[in-house]
Amino acid sequence: MSSLLNHVLFSGRLQFLHKVSTLEEMVEDLGKQFRLAADDLAEGTSLNPKKMWAEVDRDHYDLNTCLREAIVVFKSFLIALPESQLVAFQNAVREQSQLQEAHLPSHQAEIRHRRMTAIAGESSSLLARRAPWKPTRGISAPSGVSV
Fold first, then answer.
1. Residues 49-78, buried b or exposed e (16+ Cβ, 10 A)?
2. Structure-derived torsion over alpha carbons of residues 81, 92, 118, 124, reported in degrees to the nearest 10
3. Fewer CB within 10 Å, N or C, the chain?
4. What is the DSSP letter of 139?
């Protein structure tokens, strides 16, 4: 029922953006919880260290699950990305990586929060068929793209 509701209410592009946004929020919240618990353990201020270690372990598991889901979403994005746009995407990633290494401000916030452009004349229904947004087995990046 939930899957049917998603297909009725959200286009493939909106499903993708919703998934990315949800993962971002989850990682941010889990990271805060993890850091607080780890700080309490490191400083020895925890009233119940055993409970805190269990919380750190749960947060680690959840963060790892989010990472794996992000990898699936990224691979789905690469599959949906037209081959003609792969070089431009690779250059954008390379440029942002170089700016981060040089400790220069990047335009990442502008890229991440702007409206997503249509993919070379494809409708959102075609995009939804080409790129599964839920985890599937055997997804691999297009040939020539290393992940």
1. eeebeebbeebeebbeebeebbebbebbeb
2. 40
3. N
4. -
Q: Is this prediction's pTM over 0.85?
A: no
Q: Cα(26)–Cα(20) distance, rounded to whole angstroms?
A: 10
Q: What pLDDT digit, counting tens, does each position of 22-49 carry? A: 999 999 999 999 999 989 889 988 889 9
Q: Could you please report the per-residue DSSP string of 20-72?
A: HHHHHHHHHHHHHHHHHHHHHHHHT--S-HHHHHHHHHHHHHHHHHHHHHHHH
Domain limits of the chain? Answer: 1-82+123-136, 83-118
Give 87's contacts (C-beta < 8 A, 6+ positions apart): none
CB half-sphere exposure, 72, CA atoms < 13 A: 16
